[in-house]
## 1
Amino acid sequence: MKILKNGDIVCLFSEKGKKWFVKIENRHFSTHEGIVDLQQMVGRQSGDFIMTSTNNKIYFFTPSIEELILHYVKRSTQIIYPKDAGYLILKLGIKEGMQVLEVGTGSGAMTLVLAHFVGDSGRVYTYEERQEFVKKAENLVREFNLEQRVCFHTKNIGCGIEEKGFDAALIDLKEPERYLRDTVESLSCGATFGIVVPTTNQVSNVIRECEILDVLGLDICEIFFRRYRVNAERLRPQDVMVGHTAYLITGRKIKSG
Amino acid sequence: MKILKNGDIVCLFSEKGKKWFVKIENRHFSTHEGIVDLQQMVGRQSGDFIMTSTNNKIYFFTPSIEELILHYVKRSTQIIYPKDAGYLILKLGIKEGMQVLEVGTGSGAMTLVLAHFVGDSGRVYTYEERQEFVKKAENLVREFNLEQRVCFHTKNIGCGIEEKGFDAALIDLKEPERYLRDTVESLSCGATFGIVVPTTNQVSNVIRECEILDVLGLDICEIFFRRYRVNAERLRPQDVMVGHTAYLITGRKIKSG
Amino acid sequence: MKILKNGDIVCLFSEKGKKWFVKIENRHFSTHEGIVDLQQMVGRQSGDFIMTSTNNKIYFFTPSIEELILHYVKRSTQIIYPKDAGYLILKLGIKEGMQVLEVGTGSGAMTLVLAHFVGDSGRVYTYEERQEFVKKAENLVREFNLEQRVCFHTKNIGCGIEEKGFDAALIDLKEPERYLRDTVESLSCGATFGIVVPTTNQVSNVIRECEILDVLGLDICEIFFRRYRVNAERLRPQDVMVGHTAYLITGRKIKSG
Amino acid sequence: MKILKNGDIVCLFSEKGKKWFVKIENRHFSTHEGIVDLQQMVGRQSGDFIMTSTNNKIYFFTPSIEELILHYVKRSTQIIYPKDAGYLILKLGIKEGMQVLEVGTGSGAMTLVLAHFVGDSGRVYTYEERQEFVKKAENLVREFNLEQRVCFHTKNIGCGIEEKGFDAALIDLKEPERYLRDTVESLSCGATFGIVVPTTNQVSNVIRECEILDVLGLDICEIFFRRYRVNAERLRPQDVMVGHTAYLITGRKIKSG
């Protein structure tokens, strides 16, 4: 059972179906359904409720990592979607104890997901040359107390990857084909890499680059996600859905020669 | 670096793109590309290769959990697809140390995935009344040396769930609405449950049942997965795709009253 | 070659990719790219251009029926989408000379499409009990000079269908299963009917009703439509797409007994 | 009411849900449900039934154009799918009386659809350099008594299009960008063209070519089609669906200068 304390991030959930994500601090939080005294949550468990100033019930939860990615991570850059992140975690075989390379920290959303799954005994090494992104991602990771699982490098991997023998790698930046050789070389033999790209031209570029590297089992896919309205007597999909996030490319490093 | 030994499951991968999944034993394995002496892989690392009797190169890998589900688990019953399993892992917030309830062991594919992600300090409690399924799932889990992470119960949860305070639950059997009350009651306050159902009628039934339980934040979705042909100059999706696996329903247990 | 005259509906198309649909009248039309004197288009051909008051080029076209449905028909009620309308036209085998029954005129969008395809020698008989919808649909059909191809009935078909021997029928209203028997009875033997419904519960209701009627070859589908960004070097789907419009059900009337 | 005669193509439909497409001739037709004397259908109406030698009921129908494309046209080359054909018919605004150019006759499936919709007063001009395809398409069109609506040219349009002022054009061959200039030049001002291509590389090539032609309003899409199982109490999509047929590109010819 999770007992909440100051500094925790919670998802507030009104009975009308509205959602907010806040950090528990010594302050009041205003909603259309009244004002909430955040301190009232301290010492209580996830799933409990508090009343607003206008007497509306607000439930609060420890958010899942899926909710954090979608609703909490600041959209300073393209975030990775849960539908894609979940598939990649399985496909890359991420598990506790793994050493994972991330090329392109970006918003830090995927850094967070990777750190979540490598556990206390694993580690994520993430490279990003834009300092403001590194800073934001560091703050994000610290907010979830996962900083000891992540090693941030403020540099382009073109300038050298400082570690070797990664168990998995994920590339999420603009010209992945330029960083693929270095990424593959830094992997353990047999390890899987993943690449996230929005355009078909990038997919073609990655395929071409893989043809000259020690890579096998290239696999390319895209994932669609469609929500349904929660109505037992009038069940139907929602009117609008996300039309595209990214193409996902994965492959395996093989022994040279 | 992963050094292979007898009893390990490997994915064989020919240069022509054909795949096989076998356990390393003291035997020969026949393929259209020649015969492979499985013992040759012992002591070597994932990503290395061996030659067949007809001089074809066969690479071998430690399979990812995504490949295991799709290719290795015997299709005795409906398996869960990686696209769905990955999303549920994120949505249920599965992580090391968690105590997870699985209602309906089925093929054991999802049991394996859950066991993979709860780590050495977590545990999966799985209920299934059909003894032959329990047996197969136990063998499967043992094959991956995860038996200490799973507790199998050969019974219908209608006869009582023996544990309490689960951090997450997954229901994957025919009439989930019949088991939902017991499942929700066995969860920690604030915990998330997931339900996997193939038909729209089942979705409606689950929604109706949730309306009378201590549940909030019901979310219903389906996920589509489309592969692309690996061809840089003629990039296009594959001709055929899976049209449907399941609707995924998730929700949160709230404090009663 | 189409020469434009007063009363014609045109699609204005700026070089920046913005679109407007207007009727050619004796007035000026204001856009963000300047003011357009609509009379300048009279006597000129579709595909030509005029200059706005701020010297921007605006091309004008006779709109296709696909554009009319999507952009011109007033959204007083749910419109049918081109992706669905086009498929139904093929599936119902609509062609010149056909006598077609429409149950539920609604916005008149599908009335317009049917009238377009039955030609001068065919006829659409459309039933709608809400007088304000009939009025709007009549105006719409008149605007395209197709009024001689459509017979409007302001009544519920439960009160009797006045014609017999239809070559095809389309049902697009709330409880189609209530009108299915009358619709099927009014069809020629062997003719095809189509039903458009947004929810899965309605689909189940229609299937149940068909089981007791002289109907064969029931076919149920849904159609997804995804646009791509027009960018040769960065080709990718648009971020957002329509998640759902309707389930399409079709079947054939067979001889009784 | 349609009375069947020798030479007509019919769809046979067993009560078990099996379908066959045959031409009515003086012969017997064998099925798993018994032998059918095809002559028994002569003089009877679509939607009626006959009994097989083993006393099974077989209904017969005049097929819709959607069924003809999917089930009757010989798959000598890639056929166009009804989901795509229906949308293109709407998007190109095809109607009775139109003069339509088809570049690449292929199987003749789309020729048939276009001929169906241009009516007796319209005409389809179709170009194809492979003589065997022209022959097959001519036979197909003749089988449906639409030969007076189609003009076949056994030549590459690179050698010159013999007509001018088309109301619409459809390009369905391998390197559409090579034929786009000639196609656009042969269109009436304001007319719409459509292009059907399977790969993303072709889409990029077409976009690039359009940038230097008198073309506006380029629109690129793909259409997905998913069937459902006909079961009111267990409603769900079919397990497998078509993953890809083609990208559809449409645009408008504008006045030069």
Note: Residues 66-253 of chain C form a domain with the Rossmann fold fold (CATH 3.40.50.150).
## 2
Amino acid sequence: MHRFNYQRSNLYAEGIKVENIIKQFGTPLYIYSANTILDHFFKLKHAFKVLNPLICFSMKSNSSLAIIRLLVKSGSGIDVVSGGELYKAIKAGCPGVKIVYAGVGKREDEIETAIKAGILFFNVESVPELEKINKIAKRCKKIQSVCIRLNPDVDAKTHKYITTGKKETKFGLPYKVAKSIFKNKSKYKNVKIEGIHLHIGSQIVRLDPFLKAIKVALELKKEVDFEYLNIGGGLGIIYKNEKPLLPDQYAREIEKLLKGSKVKLILEPGRFIVGNAGILVTRVVYFKKGINKNFAITDGGMNLLLRPALYEAYHEINLVKKKNKPKVKMDIVGPVCESSDFLGQDRILPVPKEGEALAVFGAGAYGSAMASVYNGHPLCAEVLVNEKEVYLVKKKENYRDLIQNDLIPDFLR
Amino acid sequence: MHRFNYQRSNLYAEGIKVENIIKQFGTPLYIYSANTILDHFFKLKHAFKVLNPLICFSMKSNSSLAIIRLLVKSGSGIDVVSGGELYKAIKAGCPGVKIVYAGVGKREDEIETAIKAGILFFNVESVPELEKINKIAKRCKKIQSVCIRLNPDVDAKTHKYITTGKKETKFGLPYKVAKSIFKNKSKYKNVKIEGIHLHIGSQIVRLDPFLKAIKVALELKKEVDFEYLNIGGGLGIIYKNEKPLLPDQYAREIEKLLKGSKVKLILEPGRFIVGNAGILVTRVVYFKKGINKNFAITDGGMNLLLRPALYEAYHEINLVKKKNKPKVKMDIVGPVCESSDFLGQDRILPVPKEGEALAVFGAGAYGSAMASVYNGHPLCAEVLVNEKEVYLVKKKENYRDLIQNDLIPDFLR
């Protein structure tokens, strides 16, 4: 459920007309709904109330400081994947004990900062990483808790680019290696190996890959003991006509599996929380009749929302103010000079006039998080709506920002 | 020809050891060779000396201010595709009369700024855009020169994402429409329609698509007269074993075609100038033996170089300091939490140690230009080498930069 709905023909973000929001903040614009975010967070929390997990929002899906703050204030932990994300999680007020840190390429400086920040766990992706954490923890005179990321060799049945639990991927450790790490725990004096981490991919709409992966972890638990089970994220959402898992259904099945196992559970939802809690609003600059195609050319494209280009992802698109006009087929494309720059293809919509605004739905996750200034388009503003109030949470970049780190050497002056 | 060569086992950027450069500036790091850039620019200029074209560097391929400045100082014009790029071209000292402005989504504010800056041409992509330019020029009391971008419906035989001259793409205008615009010139009182613009795609290694497109333009010239012919960019380079066109070969064929036509020629090279003039240097953070794959995990990935993920593009990768060790097959992958985050797959290299640096070649075009801070990794530094001197031309972003535009609303404090 999200809070972007039409009343008569006007799109609302919670209690505010989107038209009024863009009058104030311009386009392109990311609009987030605070209560959709909270609704999703609490839905998950409620579904899992028997298991009472620590829910760590996966901020790679959306790293707007205000959104992280909103979730942290509501009791969420944060799943970070870099020193930059750790910095932002802390800036958003997340206590170290609610931060888990994943990722295959943790650098020494990042590990040291995280240990000093007192994070709950590293999710360890390789033996050399474990050794590095042990070494740095020793230098810092600390005992650092970690989970071992297990690669369960399970096919998540999602896009190949967001499948992470098959043995061909760079993620996690094979069963045998994970087992031998537990068996040889005592080698790592400054590390406390407390659990298993699983994360098999993103936008998964089937139950069986999740259950299969957890069963592999439970198999391991029979051989070596551990206290924490971090089952990662990956819950799919509705972009088009997906039939994703309901949180209750997901929770019940996991409850059944974990019965009697006494593990402490951790969840790392990202897309599930924010995916449908954000829209990208972009104005039509031109409507162009091509040779055998029509194009609605908008002021935001792949620079702001890369998913269609990168994953051939589908996003619902509609007029911010619907109108009763004859509909035609068109591609919705951005201003970037690449044929990959589209937001939607072969959509049936009324011909938009110049200046009319389109809402691209389901843009809350992996939208602004993957944005770039490609083609010299500054990053756009972002706002957060809370019932009848709207707050600027990210200022639009200006042209000066584009060159703030550029230097011209003397020999070119 | 580029200036990144091994002397014994050490990689040099022009006259400097790359190892010394990264000791000073760290990794990940983009390193550009000034003299490779100039060599390519002058090679093209020389090849075309009979036709004496205006060469406008396509800055979407690389928008480092120092590189633009280097080319502008050498007499290059600039091809821009947004208000942001226009701003940077001007900051780099490019005179308006050497700026051409393309792109399907030019906004009103961008057009006005460009008119006021006295740019040479807009490359017009649609009739509504032409009308808009006319309207704004009138308001500014100016006569603005334009070229009409002709969509010649030619297949450039390159990746579908960088094909731009087929009728299914959003770019340019069909022959008939272009012709009727010239026939009805007088309708546009504040616009001077002076030429035809062609740009059929990028990384094109065959001659025939170029010639076919130019022939379509010359066909049109028999029916309506124009003075300028802008044949765009698109010249392919060597990433792996491509056999691209030589500038001389390209120029001779175009000379033949244009004989007697008296058009003034414009070129818009991007990749040809900078593609092989830049490398991305990234250090190995871990070498990981996967279940049935090996991974060299580096400190820079798709966040800094998106081409492998987006276009399945190939880049040569080698150790900055070669070594005589047994070679194994491995994927070179970045630190980003996606399976799409790879720089190279199935490469045969000596097993790199932690901290050893890899050079990703051919990273000068569409490298830093498409970079993002996805997964919270700040943008990296960039340096320009000129013989035995190295200059910092882009400062590395810091963590604070990641949140410089973020705001936390009062209700979340």
Note: The radius of gyration of chain B is 23 Å.
